[in-house]
């Protein structure tokens, strides 16, 4: 059962910050999950929303700011918005990284960065899995480099997600845990895909999803898994 820290260990530190990813490592997470957008100068920025309004002391759309502008805003009065490189360097192969592509244009930039860490810093493909609700971006990822593991995110329809996973030779399906039961988890696994379910936080839901024998759980509190 893989323990995957959602946006870092979001229950304990501000989401998608180096502090949250450090906490996830301290909790012995097998993986971390994070979200990415591009800045105006095409740097890969780790942030969930399209805007900085909810999580920082600033206001505006992420892709209208340069990286240096984005660094001037604070999260929870103390943390800066990290780049994906900074997270890779912090994690330093201690766990795998589930990169969820949110912003347009992120697929090609993320593929490029992964290839750089594999060729120059001795990382391997198994240190990464790219997921997205935008399946066009997953297709783009797979076309750019079919060796990069892909996770098909869905909150609606498992059958369509399975068909897409077969087409793109994905590694995993990432379903909203509320779609799951023992039978459909087994069916997905029999077709050769991992089931990494999200976002499972309460003790009760964690126990229920574990009883379905999923391969991994993405949680704000990975220590409870
Ligand atoms: O990757 C699973 C989960 O993170 C998807 O939802 O909104 O938290 O990015 P969200
Ligand atoms: Ca996410």
From TrEMBL:
Gene3D superfamilies: Phosphatidylinositol (PI) phosphodiesterase (3.20.20.190). This is Glycerophosphodiester phosphodiesterase. GO terms for biological process: lipid metabolic process. Residues 1-225 form the GP-PDE domain. InterPro entries: GP_PDE_dom (IPR030395), PLC-like_Pdiesterase_TIM-brl (IPR017946). It holds the Pfam family GDPD. GO terms for molecular function: phosphoric diester hydrolase activity. PANTHER family: GLYCEROPHOSPHODIESTER PHOSPHODIESTERASE, CYTOPLASMIC, GLYCEROPHOSPHORYL DIESTER PHOSPHODIESTERASE. It comes from the Bacteria.
